[in-house]
Amino acid sequence: MVDTPSWSQGYVTDTGYTHGFYRELSPAIITYALRLAGRRAPDIDKPFTYCELGFGQGMTLNALAAAFPHGEFWGTDFNPDHAAQAKMMADGAGLSNLKVFDASFQDFAEAATPQFDFIVFHGIWSWIIPEARQGILDFVRKKLKVGGAVYISFNALPGWGPAAPLRHLLYEFGRTQGGGTVDKIDKALDFATKLVESKQGFFGSVGGLDKRVEQIRKHNRRYVAHEYFNEAWTPDYFSDIAASMGEAKLSYAGSANPLDGFDHLNLSATAKPLLAEAKDPIFREVLRDFLLNRQFRRDLFLRGNLTLPTQERSAQLLGTRFVLTVARSSIPEKVKLPLGEMQLKAEIYDPLLDALAAGPVMLSSLIGKPEFAKITPNMLIEASAVLTGLNYAHPVGSESLIAARKALVGRLNQMMLGQFLAGEAGDRLISPVTGSEVVASVNDRLFVEALQAKAKDPVAHAANRLTRLGLSLNAGEKRLTTVADIVPVLTGVYKTFTEKTLPVYKQHGIL
């Protein structure tokens, strides 16, 4: 068994968390989602304060500090390795507006910090002991401004109900094994597979456990360690979360997912009237979780839950600029929503996608154009919310903000490229235009590095870079390890990159 340090409070600390970026934590997405829900949001055009509790490797926190240089960013993660990683990234990118700590939530509640407009905690609540949860509530109660927003994500019931016993079994089996947490994972999954195949007792009465085990196998092992192998692991009903947030004088404001506000996109014709009968807003969300069998929620709460008048809501949403985050040709005609597959109506989405593909555009500027003659303002608001919820589009900052963040985001991207090539960073780069992520595969990032280096032959540059790092390229079942073998394969990949990905990167100011 690995000794657990006393400060860990039962949380996995022998392996770091993944290098993830979570765009729902962005002030731009939070304020946009609040406006969609008809709520007043903090003003992010003015200086604001922001705090992340439990920031993991600090990728999101650093990216947001670079994206909003007029904001003041704070964060704590009680794992000192995480704090050191986040500070190293901040120092390397020259982020003077970010302060990171390795204090517990309880201790941080007593620290000398400003009052915050935003307090966020993603992937924390369900995996910590009750004392740490109370530390979060104490921090929020003491540190959140009136009018401030809180983002919380958590494992939800009833969706996790059938699989919760499997999680408990994996943890208990791992507890009996030697070695580090990551070393236990495959042993635990192999044991669970044998039990599922036995179909004995619980394993014969609950369906889908075989698929659940195989799904877990596909995940990054560090993610699995933190998701399934913490001592504390408690899914919640939404009503329990609302009650806890109420202790800190917070009221439920809406979902952080832009898609959640449109019942006709999420619920069947028979389910919608059942939900409509629920007048209490808390019970309505509980019922929604049952109807959707939701396993994970991302929610927004406000201290001072003020409603936006309908006209002001429409004006703010129509006054928002958007841009595509992927190539126009990459967006399918049919998309997957909770209700099932939905056709993106060509008469609405084609002109909107064409406009967004040309560059950042404000929705209100489209009204009155011939191609939008049959598209109402509310249709524009919904369509842009759908595209944003699916991560095909993103709200855009002002031109002055884009100019202010460009150098900082550029330095951060350089660090991310370097960390990726060392096997650390995730599959993304940060856009100076949105302050959020754009997808960047292994090959994409190799080509970006080659183009930034002004290489005469980007393909050869990328191939040489791969081999110098001791990496390879797979072509079918063949593993390519030499420059001569890699270049022909990368040549075709580079052609696709220049046709689809490069224009998006240029539009987002990455190149």
Automatic annotation (TrEMBL):
Is Acyltransferase found in the keyword set?
no
- Stretches assigned to the Methyltransferase type domain: 52-149
Q: CDD domains given for it?
A: AdoMet_MTases
- Annotated keywords: Methyltransferase, Transferase
Give the protein name, as stated in the record.
Class I SAM-dependent methyltransferase
The Methyltransferase regulatory domain sits at 220-303
GO terms of molecular function:
methyltransferase activity
The answer to whether keyword Methyltransferase applies is yes
GO:BP terms for this protein?
Answer: methylation
Q: Name the domain of life.
A: Bacteria
Pfam families listed in its UniProt record: Methyltransf_12, MethyTransf_Reg
The record's annotation in InterPro entries points to: Methyltransf_12 (IPR013217), MeTrfase_reg_dom_prd (IPR018773), SAM-dependent_MTases_sf (IPR029063)
Q: Which organism is it from?
A: Lacibacterium aquatile
